[in-house]
Design goal:
Number of helices: 13
Order of helices and strands: HHEHEEEEHEEHEHEHEHHHHHH
Number of strands: 10
Helix content: 40-55%
Oligomer: single chain
Strand content: 15-25%
Shape: elongated
Distance between the termini: 33 Å
Length: about 425
């Protein structure tokens, strides 16, 4: 694109002389601005990608991709046949498990906490949930029918002050008629396990019991609250739900994760877009610094430009000289920023842990945030997009100063030389 002479002169102007050290300093700050802007964009977008992935995996690891219940909120009694029919309806359904879900109060000694009690089948629940992979103590298989065992989230266990083997009291909102009057149903459960999924919403409120024990506790007979379905591709939830609506008879309410959590993931995507735009302004400011740098260089090189014009250089050739200078500043800044940003994004967990150790603080406490770490997932398409846009902004910043230099009149520039 550029002739060797124009490239040589443009690169030569980058080297500072004693009388234009200030101009070189401005060039260096422009380059550093691009480095920081590109690195910040890559790092922040990688963190946003990591948050989105963690939210999706943690929420959908505990919540079902699709849930089937009765529209009248009555127990689902034909869940075995219904589950087999749904698995035959669509091959994208890879797991089906029944569940019972009720809100209860849990107490141990003087401690009382509200919670969500979920009855599960330990042999079938791993097909639709990841909680069995998150066990800190005990196993999900330790829940056996008739033993009234319970598995608690780590936050809930800490609030109650219980550990394995302790007996806690579960109080249900359902009432029983007794000689002493109407009293809530109360049952004692033995703590069989403790899990931690890394989300405060589940760790501090969810308790799991065997499905049969939950049915007996809530007097549901053989019925269940509903069925939880897992798909081979969670992004196929909407078409699978539509296929089930067409295949199943009326009376069932079929919902998918996009209906329950769509706003959360949409908010994350919007936030990612806005962060990209905001941080791109850093690169834009650095590009404006390139404009000021080249304007000062053009003013300083008026005599040189005039001599080149008298030697036969065309306005287009003069314009290319200064475009080369601005492009080199932008290119070096983009390359260094990309390298720094990629390195930081790939090692963010180590850097954050070191900073937390040095400062003695925790940036994201687990009791405040859904995710208490800084997950990072580098997407190379984001890297290419950021680098490309930053380089284009750098090139665009050179156009006006270069065009202004090409309009220099040799006689006017040399009048006072």
């Amino acid at each position: 694109m550029f002739k060797p002479l124009e490239l040589y002169i443009g690169l030569r102007y980058l080297r500072a002389k004693r009388r234009n050290q200030f101009i070189s300093f401005i060039s260096l700050t422009s380059m550093l601005g691009i480095v920081l802007g590109v690195a910040a964009l890559i790092t922040v977008l990688s963190v946003m990608n990591g948050f989105e992935k963690e939210l999706r995996e943690r929420i959908l690891g505990m919540a079902s991709h699709i849930t089937v219940t009765r529209m009248d909120s009555e127990p689902l009694t034909d869940w075995q046949a219904l589950g087999e029919a749904m698995e035959k309806t669509d091959p994208r359904i890879v797991g089906v498990a029944p569940y019972v879900r009720k809100e209860v109060m849990l107490s141990f000694g003087s401690q009382v906490q509200g919670g969500l009690l979920r009855g599960v089948l330990p042999e079938r629940d791993p097909a639709v949930s990841d909680v069995w992979q998150k066990m800190l103590y005990g196993e999900l298989g330790d829940l056996r029918a008739g033993e009234f065992g319970i598995v608690l989230g780590v936050g809930l266990a800490r609030k109650l002050g219980v550990t394995l083997g302790d007996k806690i009291t579960v109080v249900t909102p359902q009432a029983s008629n007794t000689p002493a009057g109407i009293l809530p149903r109360i049952k004692r459960f033995t703590v069989k396990g403790i899990f931690e999924v890394g989300m405060h919403e589940y760790d501090s409120a969810l308790a799991l019991v065997h499905l049969n024990d939950a049915q007996r506790l809530f007097r549901m007979g053989e019925g269940v609250t509903g069925l939880r379905l897992k798909l081979s591709d969670l992004y196929q939830a909407v078409p699978v739900r539509n296929a089930l609506v067409d295949a199943l008879p009326g009376g069932y309410w079929i919902s998918d994760w996009t209906m329950r959590h769509a706003n959360l993931f949409r908010a994350v995507k919007i936030e990612k877009t806005m962060m990209f735009i905001i941080l791109l302004l850093i690169v834009a400011v650095a590009a404006f610094n390139i404009v000021s740098t080249l304007v000062m260089v053009v003013t300083d090189k008026q005599a040189d430009i005039a001599i080149l014009r008298t030697l036969g250089s065309t306005p287009r050739s003069i314009m290319r000289i200064f475009i080369v200078q601005g492009m080199v500043i932008g290119l070096i800044g983009v390359l260094l920023g990309t390298a720094f940003g990629v390195t930081l994004a790939l090692n963010l967990d180590t850097v954050v842990a070191w900073l937390e150790g040095v400062l003695g603080i925790q940036f994201m406490p687990a009791d405040v945030y859904y995710i208490s770490t800084f997950p990072s997932e580098l997407h190379w398409d984001d890297v290419w997009k950021i680098s490309g846009i930053s380089f284009v902004l750098s090139v665009l910043a050179t156009l006006y100063p270069a065009w202004n230099a090409s309009r220099t009149q040799p006689a006017e520039a040399l009048r006072y030389e």
